[in-house]
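Can't attach files on this board, so I'm pasting raw text. These are the components:
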Amino acid sequence: MQILTGMKGALIGSVIAAAAIIAAPFYVDLFQIMQLTVFAAMAVLALSLGFIWGYGGILCFGQTSFFGLGAYAYAVSAINFGDSTPAILLAILVPVVFAALLGYFMIYGGISDVYLGVITLTVSLILFNLVNSTAGDFYKIGEARLGGFNGIPGVPTFNLPGNPGYILTPEQAWMVTGIALILVYLGLRVLIASSFGRIIIAIRENETRAALLGYDPRIYKLITFMIGGAIAGFAGALYVNWGAFVSPTIFALGLSAQIIIWVIIGGRGTLIGPVIGCLLLQWMVTEIGAQQALDANFILGAILIIFVLLVPKGIAPTLRDLALSRLGRGETAPPEARVKVKT
Amino acid sequence: MSAPLLQTSGLTIRFGGVTAVDQVDFTLREAELRCLIGPNGAGKSTFFKLLTGQLPPTEGHVHLRGQDISGARPHEIARQGVGIKTQVPNVFNALSVQENLWIAARHKHTPTFATELTDKILTQLRLTGIANKEVGQLAHGQRQWVEIGTVLAGEPELILLDEPAAGMTHEEVERTAELILEINKSRALIVVEHDMQFIKMIARTVTVLHQGAVLIEDDVARVLEDARVRDVYLGKGLAA
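---
Top answer:
Structure tokens for the assembled complex are below.
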């Protein structure tokens, strides 16, 4: 029942958010629309980690691997096909296959949590160096030159499905990105409320017990990891659509760390938390970047330390706990709220 | 149907130089209730871990209804109908009591039926009052009950209980004994326990483990009178 009422709230919130997204271009100037578009694309990326870490208990330190692969898969296929629709599908498919292979060896090989973090981080750095060294005419896939550290400029942005001649305006691209964020959020909500979602939460809580009940934790973790890869890859396509450009920095350490900070500050074990953390911190970093007095990374580090010490659960779970205690409800919160993540 | 429900032959596990379970031949008939006792370190919990696939045997075999399950993974053995309550409660701490049982029931059943089965077991174990409580916040005795409920919700044909009465009040111990006898009407059980009062309440046949090997296996009254059993419990060395 709690799940159902929770879903109703999520649906109402999503409808309101969708209305705001559609209305935004009438009230906000183009520069800000562009800002919001990249924020929303990154929020999809934050959701991918929020899901696999907060619910699957898998701390992937290299979620940018899938984000970057999705971005490059989109760029290369959009240039070759001249149509964004199959390119978006490949931006999801390529990271999923990569996540399946990487995840299979890690999860079925019995790699423990900490080493999984180290390996995924290392993989993202390997990809960074690999793509970085693809400068020159030799490295091209079809029409698309990979361009090494210069990246790929002039990537075709989204067009209407089935009509490559109709390129979306920036306002339309914003709506697509914003609505995509809402749909990914709702899709994950439904997934978590399903039996599959219950079981992956149970496995996060106690893998031994889940196995002793007949569930194979490995396959559930692998599927969770692959879903995370798919969403991160999709976020990569949204990101390239925003800037019409992709470069190897997309795999770099800085972004990998930032995603984790978004999730910690927004709140692990919720879905809205990572979105809030991502939007808030990106907005802050942009604001700080507009002045010269303080360094953005310094502020980001300070905020992280303050949160880990004072608000360890993150924004969303803390707000929910406050609201629940105001209402004086002794009963437990919905399962999404009751999360203890292995760190 | 000649094969016994469970049979181990020469089951052995060594950790470095220590032989924790040593050449154990153990047979359990269908619907039998067996108590397994022995002093600390006798290898009882390790024996359970071998039966459930949490540890692979160094030597020997485990057969379930004639089928060799030695070296199978825990989830595979669980699917063959073996359920276990471990010594240290293995529960889903951040989930509610109801959710713990539901996850177990869901493995074999549709969501709707799993909910019905969960309600039935909650009533049977008198856990309905705390159904929505988070398991991590419960007292040890209650967590034991939740784990037993979780095992029951998985509907296994063989149930292994490792110290089900530990940390319970006298009244709770009596209820646990009643429950075990009730479960035994339809399913086989192996119960590991230290509490001799508890063993007397439920036991018919008792197997005594000592230093990883079977010391004696007999009717409960004879086992408890046996001088060797008293000696190992009092920590005296066995006269060869």
